[in-house]
Amino acid sequence: MKLARGRRVDRECINCEDIFSALAIKIRAGKAKYCSKDCYHEARRNAGKGISRANRQRKWQLKFRYGMTPEEMEFMRTKQSNKCAICRKNFVKTPFVDHCHVSRKIRGLLCSQCNTGLGMFEDNVSRVRDAMEYLQKYN
Fold first, then answer.
1. How many alpha carbons fall within 13 Å on the CB side of residue 105?
2. For residue 74, how far is the Cα from the chain centroid?
3. Residue 53 falls within a domain, yes or no?
4. Which of 25, 38, 64, 122 is deepest in the core (most CB within 10 A)?
5. Domain that holds residue 28
6. Is residue 63 part of a domain?
7. What is d(CA 134, CA 80) in angstroms, rounded to the nearest whole number?
8. pLDDT confidence of 111, banded at 50, 70, 90?
9. Strand 19-23, strand 8-12: pairing
10. Which long-range contacts (CB under 8 A, 24 or more apart) does 60-65 make?
C-alpha cells in the first residue's frame, strides 16, 4: 500500500477502537496506532495487568536470553512428552532451557537436577565421561 507523505488516512485505535486521522508517513513508520497520548498511556498501564510478575519475567527471559516465545517452549515441552531430556522424569516445575554457551543453540529442556549437573561439569564431555567411568567402577 503506497501512501503519499502528507496525506491523512483514517485508522482504528488499537486500544479504544475509535477512528482517528493520521499522517501516512506515521503509518508507514508504524507510529500511528493510538488516537491520543492518553489512549497510549492507558494501554501501557493495562498491558501487564492479569499477568503475574513472574510470568512477565519468564516471558522476557525466554525472548531475550534464548530467542523463543512461551508457545515455542510449550511446543518443546510437548515434543519431549513433558519429560527431562536426560533423566526422562516428568517435569514438576518449570523446566530449564538447556543451551550451548558458545553457539547459544538450544538443546532441549531439563529438570533442575540435570541442569545443575551439566552446569557443574561445565558442558565438558570428557569430564562427564570420566564421571560415568568412575560411577561404573564402583557400582
1. 2
2. 11
3. no
4. 25
5. 8-46
6. no
7. 29
8. very high
9. antiparallel
10. 62/97, 65/97
Cell of 69: 516465545
At residue 100, what is the residue type?
Answer: C
Which of 38, 2, 4 has its CA nearest to residue 20? Answer: 38
In the block, cell 501501557 appears at 44
- Give yes or no for a contact between 34 and 40, defined as CB atoms under 8 angstroms apart: yes
In the prediction, which pLDDT does 73 show? 94
Query: Is the model's pLDDT at 129 over the cut of 90?
Result: yes
Strand partners, 23: 8
CATH of the domain at 102: 3.40.1800.10
Query: Between 53 and 68, whose confidence is greater?
Result: 68
Amino acid at 34: Y
Length of the chain: 139
The H or E element containing residue 107 is: strand 106-110
